[in-house]
Design a protein that fits this description.
Radius of gyration of chain A: 24 Å
Number of strands of chain A: 19
Number of helices of chain B: 8
Largest sheet of chain A: 6 strands, mixed
Structural class of chain A: alpha/beta
Helix content of chain A: 25-40%
Oligomer: heterodimer
Distance between the termini of chain B: 53 Å
CATH topology of the largest domain in chain A: Rossmann fold
Structural class of chain B: alpha+beta
CATH architecture of the domain at 2-75 in chain B: Roll
Largest sheet of chain B: 5 strands, mixed
Strand order of the largest sheet of chain A: 15-17-16-19-14-18
Shape of chain A: globular
Number of domains of chain A: 3
Number of strands of chain B: 16
Radius of gyration of chain B: 27 Å
CATH architecture of the largest domain in chain A: 3-Layer(aba) Sandwich
CATH topology of the domain at 2-75 in chain B: Ubiquitin-like (UB roll)
């Protein structure tokens, strides 16, 4: 996030899109509701009538995958009606003319056609967002998990820049990170192209710095992302996968294809349970859970916070850092860490954003990076004064329809997401009786009229086909979803990710387009 | 700034500060039932009354603003008498089953009765009797124990924004209810447990799997392992086991949690946890020692690296792992194995 979680209460207007916040980030969802009670106006753009629609001033029930068209049209209206921040554009941005040219053709009427909403509602959204003193954009995987997810984000960034809603409390462009430490995993360089703190692996100076710090030789060739590595196993380029704390058998697109790859590679899985992925492993390493070790997580607002050991790990399970260190040692790298704080101190030495964040300083309250030294208080808001790259770069983008939607054989759009009661692949949440009582089984939301046209009753088990395979699932008839769209949570194995497309990735981020899958629904009996 | 005197001590506070807040500033404890600094003060329980020189009546310190020159006494005889009266009235309609009540040790009513030496009520009369609503999978609602402080209702409406519960009926039969008294199961309750966390008595208590007393537990402050909000919470530990999770006042959650953080902690000590390394032998995963597991991995890494180069190995790190572990995992892949094939499920 460019801003802090508490900032939602400082915004005049919140534009929430592709995030079902009260279910996926519940405590943040609660704070959005507090903001609305306090006078903040909420705009929701989502294919589903999510619970926060109840609190919204305006709801745009867009077709999945049409965010670029919506953002472009909002910018079109903002420029048409003179709601842009001319001073901010003049002083702090570049590329405005190109943006203007691209958004010109995205009239509210043209975008209304693409998004499946009323042109007048697009105008209202633009006026609300553009007319606000302080406006915030909040988004989640509904924006990023598309074949053009990066462009969706760029279009939102354009919207923020054109109105100068960046670099001040309460505004910004705010992705909500889904998992507890997905922010930290990125910060720590668990990415194929960057070391810690987003230092690029193909930058010679960076390589030299890490070679000196670690006393090793390093490769400057960017590596493979998760989906690419899975493909590379099939192509015989990757022979061994070492998976720590992930369950790609459930979380990754095209489950059958993932299964083939996991079975083919020499597979090491380090986890706390024998997950669907671990079941396929050649070696399984038992790890300690978060409550059995000390350390830090970084939350979605870049706040580094302490994790503390409360109980002992079962059997001979060990904290992941101990396992990884022992493997390093056995592979000939002799560095020994006596405790987790020693690793943290090494992170601080090679990561400018974390340099000032010592365990001592975060004993009671976490600190938000960047925090370059021990005197620095941390950074609640990014891009204050002007964007950190100097000038905010407008990235004009065009709406491109997903290839998933061209086939008449699979005419319905399936979109995916999480529900309140489960977390990712359920390996943690399905151990609680009460959770399983409320949310025991997979389901698919379907509109009343689509269900009626297919002669499907509420609760009836149906077969859902995509180009990758088919699954059987109970239909949940609802009026919160549009006629040509169905929703299936991805928590369950042999569910949504049997159907999703693992081949077509966002060309920049390599994120799969999980939110748009062409499906066909078949009545079984 | 305003200067006032509380129990003879001078304190300076900003205009608009309540007497309760001013007292807190100098470490003077005034008891409360219905007060929560995150809620709009409603002054309904009257336990926080104090004596203000020149005022006609005792003042509720949670709603009365401090004024210049005000002289406040927080534990004078008349204040103590009044608080005893409040407790006496509450006990007139309370089961007094502290011996078996789960809340003992974390019960404000119990603490205040001890503080003011109230053993039992001096009033005789009808007592409310409600059936326990056990329809929520995570907590009980026992209206017979409720003292109607209203905190659960206001936390649900003002902070959580769910508005599942409210006050029903008037007078003696006033109680906290879901719409039309249909029960929690049929309400909009999302089981966040934020009402349970603020209940000052045993009216809302978690359905515990383990029998424990709060004084037997040790709280461990940590960060929630579910979504990216980073809520702060206390794991209550007894005999090497987490027996409850309580929300803490962290910068991103301000004392709130959701159903997963509050109640879905059973995975930690679950019998299905992996307890030893496993190695596939003849198609089956069988138990192995750490040495066997490490040796096999090391030989495979060396073999594959030797034959196909380091880029034939890929690592997936974890968005649930610690920062330090993610750091070490990429260091292992890059610095020791020699490849940048390291990623995690940020995209998934």
């Amino acid at each position: 996030m460019t801003n802090s979680i508490g900032d939602v209460k400082k915004a005049d207007v919140i534009f929430l899109t592709g995030s079902n916040t009260t279910e996926n980030h519940p405590v943040m969802g609660a704070q959005i509701r507090q903001a609305v009670k306090n006078g903040t106006k909420l705009i929701v753009a989502d294919p589903r009538e999510i619970p926060l629609v109840r609190d919204a001033e305006l709801f745009l029930q867009i077709k999945p995958g049409t965010s670029v068209a919506l953002s472009n049209a909002m910018i079109n209206v903002i420029l048409e009606e003179g709601l842009e921040n001319k001073e901010y554009i003049e002083n702090n941005t570049e590329g405005f003319d190109q943006l203007k040219e691209v958004v010109a053709k995205y009239t509210p009427e043209a975008a209304a056609e693409i998004c499946g909403v009323a042109a007048e509602d697009i105008r209202k959204a633009a006026r609300l967002y553009g007319g606000a003193g302080v406006a915030s954009i909040l988004y989640c995987m509904g924006i990023t998990q598309h074949h053009n997810g990066t462009e969706n984000v760029m279009s939102l960034s354009n919207l923020a820049l054109v109105t100068g809603n960046l670099g001040k409390e309460g505004s910004g462009v705010n992705p909500l990170r889904g998992q507890n430490n997905v922010q930290g995993a990125c910060d720590m360089g668990a990415l194929p192209n960057v070391f810690t703190g987003y230092q690029a692996v193909n930058n010679e100076a960076v390589i030299k710095k890490f070679e000196a710090a670690w006393e090793v030789e390093l490769s400057n060739k960017p590596g493979k992302t998760v989906p690419e590595a899975i493909h590379a196993v099939e192509a015989d380029e990757v022979k061994m996968l070492y998976i720590f704390g992930e369950n790609p058998m459930v979380s990754d697109p095209d489950q059958h294809h993932v299964e083939t790859a996991l079975k083919k590679a020499f597979l090491v899985v380090q986890d706390i349970f024998l997950t669907e992925t671990a079941e396929l492993a050649d070696v399984v390493l038992p790890a300690a859970s978060y409550a059995e070790k000390d350390g830090t997580f970084s939350n979605t607002e870049r706040r580094v916070q302490r994790v503390r050991k409360a109980v002992d790990a079962p059997g001979v399970a060990k904290p992941d850092w101990v396992i990884i260190m022992e493997l390093m040692n056995r592979l000939g790298y002799n560095k020994v860490y006596n405790n987790i704080e020693e690793i943290h101190d090494e992170i601080r030495q090679v990561t400018p954003q974390y340099a000032g964040i010592s365990y001592k300083r975060i004993e009671s309250n976490g600190i938000q990076w960047p925090c370059p030294n021990e005197e620095h208080p941390g950074t609640p808001t990014l891009h204050v004064g002007k964007p950190s790259r100097g000038l905010g770069l407008f990235k004009p983008v065009e709406y491109v329809m997903s290839e998933e939607l061209v086939s008449e054989e699979f005419p319905v759009i399936m979109t995916t997401g999480r529900i309140l009661y489960h977390y990712h692949t359920r390996s943690m949440t399905n151990k609680t009786e009460g959770i399983n009582k409320i949310a025991p089984d997979n389901f698919m939301e379907i509109s009343g009229s689509l269900a009626e046209s297919l002669d499907i009753a509420d609760g009836e088990v149906v077969r859902v086909h995509s180009r990758r395979g088919h699954v059987e699932v109970a239909a949940r008839v609802t009026d919160t979803i549009e006629d040509n769209v169905v929703f299936m949570p991805f928590h369950w194995a042999d569910g949504a990710n049997v159907l999703t497309n693992g081949d077509v990735l966002d060309k920049l981020s390599k994120t799969p387009g999980l939110k748009v899958t062409g499906v066909r629904i078949e009545k079984i009996s | 700034m305003i200067t006032l005197t509380i129990n003879g001590l001078e304190v300076q506070v900003e205009e608009g500060t309540t007497i309760l807040q001013a007292a807190k500033k100098i470490g003077i404890d005034i008891p409360t039932f219905c007060h929560d600094p995150r809620l709009v003060p409603h002054g309904s329980c009257r336990i926080c009354v104090v004596e203000v020189e020149g005022a006609r009546n005792l003042q509720a310190s949670c709603t009365t603003p401090a004024a210049q020159g005000m002289k406040v006494t927080t534990e004078s005889d008349v204040v103590v008498e009044s608080r005893k009266g409040v407790l006496d009235l509450i006990l007139a309609n309370h089961p007094l089953d502290c011996l078996t009540c789960q809340k003992a040790g974390r019960c404000t009513l119990q603490d205040l009765c001890y503080r003011y030496d109230i053993k039992e009520s001096s009033f005789e009369g009808e007592r409310k009797e409600y059936e326990i609503d056990d329809s929520n999978p995570f907590y009980y609602s026992d209206q017979s124990k409720c003292i109607l402080c209203g905190k659960c209702v206001y936390v649900c409406s003002q902070l959580q924004g769910t508005e599942a519960i409210g006050f029903a009926e008037r007078g003696f039969t006033t109680h906290i209810a879901t719409p039309f008294d249909k029960g929690l199961e049929h309400s909009t309750c999302v089981s966040c447990g934020n009402c349970v966390a603020v209940c000052p008595v045993g009216a809302l208590v978690p359905k515990s799997k383990t029998k424990f007393r709060y004084w037997e537990t040790k709280p461990v402050r940590t960060t929630c392992s579910y979504c990216g909000v980073g809520c702060q919470m206390d794991l209550l530990v007894k005999d090497n086991k987490i027996v409850e999770v309580l929300p803490a006042d962290g910068p991103s959650n301000h004392g709130l949690l959701c159903v997963k953080g509050r109640f879905a902690y059973n995975f930690v000590g679950h019998p299905d946890r992996l307890k030893t390394p496993l190695i596939r032998k003849d198609g089956e995963l069988v138990e192995a020692s750490w040495d066997e597991a490490y040796d096999l991995i090391v030989s495979k890494v060396n073999e594959i690296k030797g034959e196909f180069g380091p880029d034939a190995i890929a690592g997936f790190s974890s968005a649930r792992g610690l920062n330090e572990e993610n750091y070490l995992m990429q260091k292992l892949m890059r610095g020791v194995i020699g490849t940048n094939n390291i990623d995690h499920c940020a995209r998934l």
